[in-house]
Specification:
Blueprint lengths: L1 E7 L2 H14 L7 E6 L3 E4 L16 E3 L6 E4 L3 E9 H4 L3 H18 L5 E2 L6 E3 L2 E11 L2 E9 L32 H19 L1
Helix pairs in contact: 3-4
Length: 202
């Protein structure tokens, strides 16, 4: 797995780059993990319903080809894009989702934070408050898009949507739970936890 730290990058351009990578890859292409942050943007998944957009103000809304409903991305949120060949790894989409959820649960556990996944709503939750959102797209057996983990960010834009289609869903970050974690530390710990998850699978 090649890990690329791309820093703060435009959402639309990153999506297009993922699509190109996935279209052009073959059975020998090495899997890549892209770690990024995005400038403020709301993203609407393929099944997104307009009623979940309440008042976005001057933050752009971008329609995208991942699964799921609307969510928010902004600085201070770690986004991990998983460009993985699921067919080659012999894992299904649901297994990949579980790997990502368990990666975050493991990372948070290291900080002393208890968190859970939910069968009815992908993502990771601390006492029913969402700390990580997840959405994947699969083409020709390979997945792209991925997961966002709220590290230390302005959470107020989440009040302008029904996060992931859930009215009144409270969203939190690691900082609001009383833990200081730099973005560099978050990236390092995420990669380590994900590699452990994928290694256990193999």
């Amino acid at each position: 797995m090649i890990v690329k730290d791309l820093g703060l990058v435009d959402y639309q351009q990153t999506c297009e780059a993922m699509q190109v990578f996935t279209t052009q890859r073959d059975e020998n292409t090495e899997d890549e993990l892209w770690l990024v942050e995005h400038p403020p943007v709301f993203t609407q998944g393929l099944n997104g319903k307009e009623e979940h957009i309440l008042n976005v103000g001057n933050i752009p809304v971008v329609k995208t080809d991942r699964g799921g409903q609307i969510t928010y991305h902004g600085p201070g949120q770690l986004i991990a894009y998983t460009l993985f060949d699921l067919k080659r790894q012999k894992i299904g989409v649901r297994e990949m989702v579980s790997h990502l959820e368990n990666t975050v649960i493991s990372l948070l556990s290291e900080l002393g934070i208890n968190s859970q996944a939910r069968s009815d709503a992908p993502g990771v939750y601390v006492d029913d408050r969402k700390i990580a959102a997840l959405g994947l797209r699969v083409k020709r057996g390979a997945c792209y898009h991925g997961l966002s983990l709220n590290v230390a960010m302005d959470l107020s834009p989440f009040l302008n949507i029904n996060p992931c289609g859930y009215q009144g869903m409270e969203v939190i970050d690691i900082k609001s739970l009383g833990h200081e974690l730099t973005m560099a530390q978050a990236k390092q710990q995420f990669v380590s936890a994900l590699q452990s998850q994928m290694h256990e699978e193999n």
